[in-house]
């Protein structure tokens, strides 16, 4: 997607350290935050499936295993 953690955080309305903690497994996003992540990824891609494949699927699998 070409976004830094700082830019991604700004688009989500959270801080850079928050994104960094999520990515490093030191904390987990709330269900509401995950909804925002999925929504943002969907808006930034050509299709929801593409968005989930690029980044969202990893996060969803990590925090919401089937």
From TrEMBL:
Residues 2-47 form the HTH cro/C1-type domain. It comes from the Bacteria. CDD domains: HTH_XRE (cd00093). InterPro entries: Cro/C1-type_HTH, Lambda_DNA-bd_dom_sf. GO terms for molecular function: DNA binding. Gene3D superfamilies: lambda repressor-like DNA-binding domains (1.10.260.40). PROSITE patterns: HTH_CROC1. This is Helix-turn-helix transcriptional regulator. The lineage of its organism: Bacteria, Bacillati, Cyanobacteriota, Cyanophyceae, Nostocales.
């Amino acid at each position: 997607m070409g976004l830094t953690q700082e830019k991604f955080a700004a688009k989500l309305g959270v801080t850079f350290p928050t994104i960094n903690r999520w990515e490093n497994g030191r904390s987990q996003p709330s269900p509401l935050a995950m909804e925002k992540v999925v929504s943002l990824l969907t808006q930034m891609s050509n299709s929801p499936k593409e968005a989930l494949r690029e980044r969202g699927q990893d996060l969803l699998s990590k925090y919401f295993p089937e």
